[in-house]
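Hi there,

I know you've been waiting on this one. I reran it after we fixed the sequence typo, so this is the corrected version. Both the input and the resulting structure follow.
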Amino acid sequence: MKLGLTVAERVARARADLRIGAPVALRAGAAGAVALAAETAAPARLAALHALGPVDLALSARRAETLRARAYDGDLARLILPPDIDPARLRGAIDPAEALRAPLIGPFATRREGDPAAHRLALTLCKQARLLPAALVAPVADPEALAAAQGLTLVDAAEMAEADAAAVLLDPVSAAPVPLETSLDARVHVFRPRDGAEEHYAIEIGAPSRAAPVLTRLHSACYTGDVIGSLKCDCGPQLQTALAQIGAEGAGVLLYLNQEGRGIGLANKMRAYALQDAGFDTVEANHRLGFEDDERDFRIGAAILRRMGFSAVRLMTNNPGKVAAMAAAGIAVVERAPLKVGQTPQNARYLATKAAKSGHLL
């Protein structure tokens, strides 16, 4: 057996490299490139990137729309980065919080010619790394040779489907009884995805039958609501109510998925909160950051349920998207149980936006 890295391992390493400000080499069909995450790129690394040739700032179409930059490639824009760009101007282009403080950040020229496939791959990796979807990309003719010569991680777009599949291959790591306030008969299971992402947890209460639909809650991690009692969302009350209802029934499963901030991570969630304080609603804030309304992957929840032996659920949710995602992943939803709790004056606008723009049944 060879000791070389698998595709999933190389992609996981590339995500880690981007988080620490290291470059990665990319291959996307005939296009080759070297990329840095714009958020973590140090000036010396950016200068080294410029030495390779022209550098583009790749942004999602959502962020480009905010900057009034043309997204000629549909889902992304390739802004031509001047070699002497001021760091503050670059920061303002990728981070709307900076733009609020110093809004005169444009105009930018946008590239139309050439293949955007490597730029698209760079943005995907930035999102997976829970960074802002903004990448500094320089074309190179032979990314394989550059990666070998300089010790860079190489990612090929053609292999990303294999890496994506690894995200929903989860292995049980450990499990133990954990008595809860809502049920003394509870057991916590830890599952680790093979793509190197965060672990996820299943709280199994009682001994639910594998032959019948199980009362289930798919709960996305919310540090602010679940841990420190934030009033800006309804997550904490939903978590406690779901556990109480499962405990009262005597059997069920709560999946605690580490997909903070609808999958954008806590740092970006705080950026979104800052934009909400500036007057934008929760969906508008995500778009200004460059993200879609919801970046979560509910296939992970379905994979855990299947791994635990369940094939049908009575799903506790206000979100029809979760119902559809479970069905698409092969988990039958025989009932939707609403969780209308946790409304506060501080989250009234947030909940209204979820209902109006995201279809939540509130």
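Quick highlight: DSSP finds 16 helices and 13 strands in the chain.

Best,
R. S.
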